[in-house]
Each structure stands twice: as structure tokens, then as C-alpha cells.
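REQUEST FORM: STRUCTURE PREDICTION
Request ID: SP-0412
Submitted by: Lab K.M.
Chain count: 1
Length (residues): 409
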Amino acid sequence: MTLYKRVLKNSSIYMVSNIIQRFLAFLLLPLYTRFLTPGDYGIVAVVSSLVITLEILFMFSLGGAVTKFYFDLRDDPAELKKFYGTVFSFLFMVSVILSAVSLLWGPVFLAPFLDEIPFDPYMAVAIGGLFFFPVYDLYLNVLQTEERTVEFSIATISCFVLKTILSIIFVVGMKKGAIGPIAAESICNFLFFAVAFIRMKDRITFTIDWKHLKTSLAYSIPLLPHTLVTQIKHIADKLFLNSMIGTAAAGIYNIGFQIGNLTAVIAMAINRAYIPVFMESMKSKEAQSLEKLNKLASFLVFFYCTFSFLLSIFSRELLIVLTTEKYYQAYLIVPFIAFSFAARGIYFLFVNTLFFYEKKTKLVAVISIFTALLNIALNYSFIQIFSITGAAAATMTSQIAATIFTAYI
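STATUS: Completed
RESULT:
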């Protein structure tokens, strides 16, 4: 199969999977905006943002190591099973330790970010589900790397459908408010941890091979600051809004963020299909294949920007259809968020090159730290002047800066 056909086929499958999930998310918006107050929605947004940050710490960026070293080991099945087993076993032990630490000390070190949001029950329930997340996420990384796109899509769609059903039961049926979506997420993490274990148990050798662990951590740990500060950059807007204006402002902002996030859905789907093809082409060093990658990247730049432009134009109509009047103000931030994710899609094209060269991953961390600090400074300044629009503008500006710096390197 040619490079173009592989990327088109796999990205199409990922795209369909993402579209189904986004469609379900859109179905939830009218329910959430009618059964949750902006304050409730703000709680969900802030807690979800913090949980995603903790997920990165729990994962140690080892998903990137799986993608990198699979191509070195795929011709040696026994060694590949040991490699997978080492990574899975290590992450499970890390989950046990970090979950216990988070539950015991979370009320102290998360208090500045939660502001007036109680740790118990919101963060406590979320952390309970977080314990099960790394194994499931690593399973998805394996599926993506091995280009098992159909199984990846079935797993993610099934998880999202179950989470949607549980959220509706908790929010609409049981009137549980903000705790409903958080509890639904935790239950799904537990159930799909079991799915991941069953699906992978015959394909891995449960062990700790110190050679594989050392190699994996040497590659992934330099990526951890990059991944972590990138996430901090993506949640700074909600956290600043929560502390500077209020939880309701964070809730309204998050609705607009969900609309603008459609660009990210497409960019992530394409990038999932692009990474294995990119890594293989870089390893082979075939001039024709690399030239095709360049042409494909040029088309993607045009596509991301065009889609974001169209989404920005029709954002107000989407919000009127999907939400209630108290959320209409969110249309103001959609263009900033949509083009922020267009810039992120372009950033992926450049940063994949740095990920290929093991010794260059530290440069990725430097860029991420710098632009995260820029994002925090801009959020603090812009929110005071422009309110929720300032948060969106800060997000877009810092992402464009990250893209430009990465492209230059």
C-alpha cells in the first residue's frame, strides 16, 4: 500500500471514530447546558483539565517510547513481548504509587488550582478512576503504532458511548450535577483497563527487563517536561478564568472550547495515521517517500486553516442550536481556539521530526517550557483586560509561537 493510501485509509478510520465521538459530545451539550449550571460545567472543565495533567505524570511519556522502539523490535516477536511487558508492568506499579500519593496529598497540592472547588468528592472520584488509565492508554498507543486502526476505533468509540450513557444517567436521570460526568469517566477507566488487560495478556511477557526499561525511560523522560508543560499550556486558560473571574466563566469558556476543538479532532486523527508512516519513511530514508511527506504536509496546512475558518464563521449558529442563551457568549472564543488547533496541527508536522531523533527530544522540552511560560503570562495579562476572549487569544498566540519555534529548529 502506498504512503498516501495508508495515511488516507488510517486517518479516515480515525476520523470516523472521532466524528462519532464528537457527534455524541454534541448530543450531550444540549443536555449539559440545560441540566448543569455554568458553575457545574466549570467544575467539570477544571477537574477534567487537572486529571489530564495527572494522566501525563502517570504515563511518564512512555507511549512515545512504544511508538519509537516498536519499529526496532517488530522483527523479533519475543523481544517485542518483553518490551511491551516491561512498559506495562512499570506503568502499573507507577499507577499504584501515584494514585495513593494523589489521594493522600491531593487536597494540599491541588488546592491552589481548584480554588473554591472541593477536593472531595470531585477530584477524589476522578483520581480513583485515574489509577486505571495508564494501562488502557498504553494499549491504545500499541494499536496506533501497529496501525490496528479498526480495533483502536472500536475501543475508543465503545468507551465514549459507555461514558455518554453513564453521564446521561447520572446528570439527567439521577440529577447528580457536576459529579455525574466525572464519575462516568472513572467507571469507564476501570472497565476499559480490564479490556486492555484481556486484549494484551497474550501479546506481552509480564516482566521488568532493565535494559528495555532503561532505554524506554531514557527516551521518554526528556519528553515528559514537554508533554506536561504542553498540557499546562492547554489548561492555564480554564484555571486562570476559574480563579480570576469564577467557575461560571470557566464553564462558558469550555463550551466555546468544545466547538473550536473540532479542528483538534481532525488534526489528531490525521496525526495518528501520519506518525507510523512518518517514522517508517524516516527510517528508510527513501527520497521519494520523504518528498511525498512534504507534499502531504503542505496540503494539511491548507486544510487545517480552511476548516478553522469555516468553523469560526458558523460558530454562533452552532451554539444557538446546541446550547441555551446563558452560553451564547462562548461564540467569541471559537475563532481563537479553532486557529490555535490549526497551528497545533501544523506543529505536529514539525515536531515529529524532532521526536524521530532521540537526542533532539530535549529541544522539544525547551520549546514547550518557553511557550508554556508565555501562555501563563499572556493569560494573566489578557484575562484582566478582555475576560474570556483574552484567555482564548493567549492560547492561540502561545501555540502559534510554539509552531514557529519548532519549524525554525
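NOTES: The two ends are 32 Å apart (CA to CA).
Reviewed by: T.R.
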